[in-house]
Design goal:
alpha+beta, 4-stranded mixed β-sheet, 23% helix
Length: 115
């Protein structure tokens, strides 16, 4: 569980730094394990796949059979590729596509949004 939380923090920091630019020059793809619910598969399992982000929006989420083949294909499409697997690890890190707000002020959630 600690690894998932740590990875979530890491991915948020990466996303914040990568997406702080107004518009990205190239799409970026993250290859890793994706929960089945995002792939219209069994929600209790994860599958090897990728999340393609272009202009700060998720454009595509797909399962793949082989990470190396997917990386080559995505690079041919012009995307930068980040493989989410620690050096020497046997398995890939889990990707939870979408926005995860890791910074919240629960006491302030009852206040209206500022204009």
């Amino acid at each position: 569980m600690g690894r998932v939380f740590s990875f979530g923090v890491f991915l948020s920091l990466v996303a914040e730094s990568v997406f702080s630019v107004a518009a990205l020059a190239k799409p970026i793809a993250f290859i890793g394990k994706i929960p089945g619910e995002y792939l219209e598969k069994d929600a209790d399992s994860t599958h090897l796949g990728y999340v393609l982000v272009d202009d700060r929006l998720i454009q595509r989420i797909e399962a793949v059979a082989d990470a190396d083949d997917a990386e080559k294909t995505l690079k041919k499409e012009g995307a930068d590729v980040v493989v989410l697997k620690a050096k020497g690890a046997r398995s890939y890190d889990v990707i939870y596509p979408g926005l995860i707000d890791l910074h919240g002020h629960n006491k302030q959630n009852m206040l209206p949004t500022w204009d």
